[in-house]
């Protein structure tokens, strides 16, 4: 039998890029109902009309007074860095050596990986994030742990085994051959199962040999549906290092290009120190950028140039980049995105910000036919925001005249406290009873 349920409240979603098309790109219901059949959007409309046609005994979650948006999409995050968030005092390369690599070494232990994966998925959901593209560690079992935790919560999740066969501690090193073989085994085990997708994951060009980079590009090209995730042009010392390792490359991005690692479903974190030729290549190949504002400020990396990315039509999503990023909250990440762009003499409107956190993220992952909006047939993942969640929010909301103003206040003052509920495939998020009985990893 089909299951039908519905939610009522103020509902907002985006239909196309607001930067390109203006305000007409969104749909807003002050009092709306979203009807959900078997976890997918059946219909969206004004409450009055919907109540007339829905069965009277339908399961209805009443969120009147709250704002319902498509679930947030975090396009770049490291689950194994959950325990080193807020580690003091370093920029990228020293931060990797001092904090990141020791923390990632612990994921050789499957029990540790499983515990962190559960916490991580719960923390994403608590913050209204229903889809994430995440780095695991070099250990294949770390990938199993994260996919299993996401599966038990029915989340959309993209992850992959980190490839790194040089310039890193021995205890975190694979080889070009073992990395390739393990990645392929994980693709077979997980890619396309439930809502899970695999990403080939060369950490960055500095920690993979040319042989490993060649194999990564080949694997990415062999499977049309696979993703690829990496880092590019984040930090100036990093860029000088890449230039020494690859003296013939025109640019850092050009290294990835040379190994066939640009294309649809490739996602590059940071993209701060690119030039227009790099941006033209990203646009031409369909590669996406993940803008990670809290990380870029925390590590002192630099200021992302959204206007130039937009001018070339590049797909852009938002990433928290935890643990260099300082918050799991997409609201707090939008807050800092606004400030980064202020320092770069650019504006980020609230509608644009929430677009990036939902449909923009989905588009950057080529998942906008599945998630990111409430079009009929889409997977019914959504977040319920409470504009009255804190005394200050409530007070400030009372002085807002428009939806735009309220959204802006929510992204500046809101955090996990403002998330009243998160739903995945229509149902309240969390461990799914039918899936978590024997919560053993594969
Ligand atoms: N570049 C290579 N690895 C990393 C990482 O773990 N975090 C960040 N922010 N940049 C990286
Ligand atoms: Fe990162």
From TrEMBL:
The record, for SUPFAM superfamilies, names: Composite domain of metallo-dependent hydrolases, Metallo-dependent hydrolases
Q: How is the cofactor bound?
A: Binds 1 zinc ion per subunit.
Reactions performed catalytically: guanine + H2O + H(+) = xanthine + NH4(+)
Pathway field = Purine metabolism; guanine degradation; xanthine from guanine: step 1/1
Molecular function via GO: guanine deaminase activity; zinc ion binding
Cite a single GO BP annotation: guanine catabolic process
Gene3D superfamilies per the UniProt record, alphabetical: Metal-dependent hydrolases, Urease, subunit C, domain 1
What residue stretches are annotated with the Amidohydrolase-related domain?
A: 68-426
Cofactor(s) in the UniProt record: Zn(2+)
Extract the InterPro entries matched here.
Amidohydro-rel, Guanine_deaminase, Metal-dep_hydrolase_composite, Metal_Hydrolase, Metallo-dep_hydrolases
Pfam families for this protein? Amidohydro_1
List GO terms (cellular component aspect). Answer: cytosol
This entry's Enzyme Commission designation comes to 3.5.4.3
Q: List UniProt keywords, sorted A-Z.
A: Hydrolase, Metal-binding, Zinc
Per the record, the similarity remark reads:
Belongs to the metallo-dependent hydrolases superfamily. ATZ/TRZ family.
This chain's function reads: Catalyzes the hydrolytic deamination of guanine, producing xanthine and ammonia.
Protein name, please? Guanine deaminase
Q: Which organism is it from?
A: Thauera humireducens
The record lists the lineage as: Bacteria, Pseudomonadati, Pseudomonadota, Betaproteobacteria, Rhodocyclales
